[in-house]
Amino acid sequence: MTFAVLRSSNARHLVLRAAPGDAFPAALRDALTAEKVKNGWVRATGILEDARIRPLGADGVASGVRPIAGLLYLLHLDMPIAAEGADRESACRGVVAFDGESGLETLGAEILQARVQTLHALVTVLDDLAAASTWSAAIEASARSEPVGASGGAARTIGIPPTPAGAPPMPPRPLRPSVDLDGLVPETGDTVDHFAFGRGDVLKSDGDRLHVRVHKDGRIREIALKMLRVTLLEGSPAAAPGTRHFKLERRI
User: Would you identify the CATH topology of the domain 11-143?
Assistant: First the structure.
């Protein structure tokens, strides 16, 4: 295994505190730009909300987009910074936790977009490092390295331990079982009254999950139906022509 060694004799440190409501990671990138940070490292932790993430698979590759309604706990963010001109290589990948349909879920993910509740970051700035192209080459080489578990493969920055040689491959994540719901299920265009969020319009229905735009604040909430009692309200004036109106209550 060969490592590229970059030495710095002129490091400085910054502590960044985001304001509630800041857009993440845009606000972090703006702060790094304002402080003229072109090379270095960021470590951060905090609480976000209304996030969109790209989960990391067993191979360390981020794929798909998953919206997270409610709070997203950023347990650990650790990423390199390498910028050249206006371009900044700072994919925000870390370990996050959130309240999923089966309880608290913890996974590695790339955070695409979120709003800050609280966020603290420690930035180590390495001003005198070689040109950003050196960092870029190292990052590209890591992306081209052998898969995790291959003999002599390069270490990955995500922190996933390599699989021992000869060990069986990690089994695929089991498919989410279908949920047996009583009665009708709201569909796109229908109106729902949620016991906690209030009234909203269904933007998307996956059969057992809804994406609903809540009237009172305009936010989009992801709602799991398996823990709710779904009741069709016949003849409700709240429903637009050609749509239906449902009441979503907790199952007792």
Answer: 60s Ribosomal Protein L30; Chain: A; (3.30.1330)
